[in-house]
Amino acid sequence: MNTALERLAQLPLGTRIVVRYRIEGGLTDALGELSSRDGLSATLLTRSGSVTIMYHDVQLAKEVPPPPPRRSRRLPTPPTG
Fold first, then answer.
1. Cα 53 from chain centroid?
2. How far apart are CA 81 and CA 33, in angstroms?
3. pLDDT given at position 6
4. Long-range contacts of 21-24 (CB under 8 A, 24+ apart)
5. What is the pLDDT of residues 47-74, one digit of tens each?
6. Whose CA is closest to 34, among 22, 19, 54?
7. Rounded CA gap, 23 and 1, in Å?
8. DSSP code per residue over the chain
9. Is the overall model pTM greater than 0.90, yes or no?
10. CA triple 21-63-20, angle to 5 deg
């Protein structure tokens, strides 16, 4: 079995992962939380929506750390004088 598929099978749902997979004309990546899987595919919840990836298209898969916390917006400093 492909090690990427083994990894996908072992990771708990809700884990943040990146998956590189084949698309027409090349490869692409999906980054998000592993939301479901079945015998044929895995589904990730990404920032742009749900992405279902067929196992036969998977090239690489790995767990990634949580995103960094959002930085607060800086307020302009008032003029002195």
1. 11
2. 51
3. 87
4. 21/53, 21/54, 21/57, 21/58, 21/59, 22/57, 22/59, 23/57
5. 999 999 999 999 999 999 988 888 887 7
6. 19
7. 21
8. --HHHHHHHHSPTT-EEEEEEEETTEEEEEEEEEEEE-SSEEEEEETTEEEEEEGGGEEEEEE-PPPPPPPPPPPPPPPP-
9. no
10. 10
Say which amino acid occupies 36.
S
**Residue pointed to by tokens 């607060």:** 72
pLDDT greater at residue 28 or residue 5:
28
pLDDT in tens, 15-43: 999 999 999 999 999 999 999 999 999 99
pLDDT of residue 5 exceeding 90, the answer is no
Side-chain-side CA neighbours of residue 31 (13 Å): 5
Distances (CA, A) of 51 to 27, 36, 41, 73: 14, 10, 10, 31
In the chain the first and final C-alpha atoms are separated, in Å, by 71
